[in-house]
Design goal:
The structure is a single chain. The chain is an alpha/beta fold and 228 residues long. It folds into two domains: 95 residues, Elongation Factor Tu (Ef-tu), domain 3 (Beta Barrel); 115 residues, Rossmann fold (3-Layer(aba) Sandwich), CATH 3.40.50.80. The chain has five helices and eleven strands. A six-stranded antiparallel β-sheet has the order 4-3-6-1-2-5, with no helix packed on it. A five-stranded parallel β-sheet has the order 9-8-7-10-11, with helices on both faces. Strand 10, helix 5 and strand 11 form a beta-alpha-beta unit. The radius of gyration is 17 Å and the shape is globular. Bound molecules: flavin-adenine dinucleotide (FAD). Flavin-adenine dinucleotide binds next to strand 4, strand 5, helix 1 and strand 11.
Amino acid sequence: MRLILKDRKPEVPGVESFIFEPKEQLFWKAGQFLHYVLHHEPTDDRGSDRWFTVASAPSEGHVMLTTRFAEKNESSFKKALKGLKIGEAIEVSDVDGDFLVENMDAEYVFIAGGIGITPFRSILKELEHAGKKIHATLLYSNRDEYIPYKEELDALDANNPHLKIVYIVGGRIDETAIRKAAPELQKPVFYISGPEPMVNALNNMLKGMGVPEINFKGDWFPGYTAED
Ligand SMILES: Cc1cc2nc3c(=O)[nH]c(=O)nc-3n(C[C@H](O)[C@H](O)[C@H](O)COP(=O)(O)OP(=O)(O)OC[C@H]3O[C@@H](n4cnc5c(N)ncnc54)[C@H](O)[C@@H]3O)c2cc1C
């Protein structure tokens, strides 16, 4: 299926959202991702396809891709994406992913590293649209004070007394932050999204803290370092 680029929105320095309109009906659930193909020449050895979370909520009606552009060693894919003009198309397929929030009775700790915030934006926007008040703490670490979606997240936070957002700037999410968010470690369900090394490190940390593995779910973004 082809998506047509309708708009581009700079989020913070180095991070941009691409807003697409599907040519046919496209169904996805908040938290899912799409497979993108962008043919371009020359193509580096990292190839012409990527996976990206649908950062928009289904209720928003468009597909939003938000990505961080690297300062060095940028891939040819990202260069081609950066060059995409309004009205141009990108190929997508395979909506997939089980990073979904379905049990509204559960308590959640969401952990986002940098651009790993994308599925949480979709999830929280969709819940707000449905009038559902999730019980959740979002721990969101970012490399600097330019935090993608901060205004939108603050608005979501203000509309839900059971949602708490903790921003961690320039540091890592450690055991102390987790224990503060979840004084009863056995109780909440942990959702972790971000660069692959960060998600792996947090999975190990939670395991070490005695959180049952069944209570955590990860969304791994390859191709980024823990600092991204
Ligand atoms: C399910 C899923 C969902 C995802 N959702 C998102 C999303 O919402 N937003 C998002 O931005 N990404 C997302 N990703 C990750 C995305 O697919 C890309 O892997 C990521 O954006 C990196 O893009 P890139 O490889 O074009 O590298 P770039 O962004 O161009 O570079 C990233 C960094 O990687 C280094 N690097 C990595 N590999 C190499 C290599 N082989 N050679 C040289 N340098 C290298 C570069 O130096 C640079 O610092 C998702 C991935 C998955 C699997």
